[in-house]
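for the writeup, i need someone to sanity check this before i put it in the appendix. the sequnce is what the collaborator sent (i think, or maybe the updated version? ugh). structure was predicted straight from it, no edits. if anything looks off just tell me and ill rerun, i have time this weekend
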Amino acid sequence: MIRYRLNGSLSPMREEEEYGRNDVRIELMTIQEFEADKEQISHKKLLLRQLEQIQYCKAEIFGSCIIGTFAVPNVKNLPGKKESFGFHMVKDRLIFVEGGGEHVKSIFDRMREIQYGEQGSMSAFFTGFLNYLIEGDSIFLQGYENKLIVMEDKMTKGLQKNFYEKIIRCRKDMLHLQSFLTQLADMADIFRSNTNHLFEAEEKEGFAIFAHRVERLGDHVSLLREYILQIREMYQSQIDIAQNRTMGILTVVTTIFLPLTLLVGWYGMNFTNMPELTWKYGYPAVGVLSIIIIILEIRFFRKRNLL
């Protein structure tokens, strides 16, 4: 277990230290430590059941506490394994329960530099924590947009290998990220509702600001999803154009050899009264005629930009 005191800033406590009567307590526990904690924790069994299989971010308000879970995707592998942990919040105590990862602790280490007022505010700390969860998302989305621009530029220069697989991967990335942001927005709305009056009226403003920030990120993700769809449609158009060009070439080749097919069929009848059959120049004449027909047809198709 790692314990912190919130008294203007987030201060780690030594093992032998005791909390003061008015201290705001922030604690990071494993599931086993949370289960073995001897203090009275309301809805403890419910949170333990939720920690068994965390699928998404959510928060639930009860009479004197708020409990919930987080499933935070890794921006380096959005469809992959998520950082999962839960929390239990009362007026003066916030417990984070992590299954063995270091994600929450790494955020705490960065949050120790922030000031939360003289006495320290639970709402200010928690909104700060929420903001750290999406800290790098704006930069990530800008980088992802640049990546899509590069993909589009390469696509305009010709058909790319495994392009559809890349587009599908991008669509999945944005789908997972948008799902995460939507869940955070729902959590912010639940905290803003403050139905158990855990926060003062003015403290809810921080959750409103966070919700607006998440909404802007969600709008950016929606724009990128539309951009991905446009790139896919452009790529499909290029494939259609290439196929039409191939079909056009095949049609021209077929048309060029159609008169020759007629000649072959005509003189392949071998009727005894056909004068060309006994003419000593018949074979060369047919060959010259075929070459002339091919040359004329090629000139015709080139004038019409079909070759």
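The mean pLDDT is 88. The longest strand covers residues 24-30.
thx in advance!!
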